[in-house]
Design goal:
four-stranded antiparallel β-sheet, alpha+beta
Amino acid sequence: MIGIIKKPIISEKAMEMGSQRQYAFEVVPTANKIEIKKAVEELYEVKVESVRTLRMKGKIKLRHTRKGLQKGKTAMRKKAYITLQEGYTIEIVSGGQED
């Protein structure tokens, strides 16, 4: 279960969502919402209200070298936006900001 979550996403947008009990995680592309919910509840000992997922397509990257133009592609990623039930927070993801 714990191998489903790769890492929390720590960006400016994700930090703003933390005040609304919402957190973003990068997850394994084959994981479904039920597995993600169980993994977050087990790993962080919280109660999850809802899970929203999205798949991000890989980008095409071009590089000019001596041998010519080389093409490559980044891997497809999957994100999960978690909303926690009232009264629960995740301290690691919130960045430890105290107001």
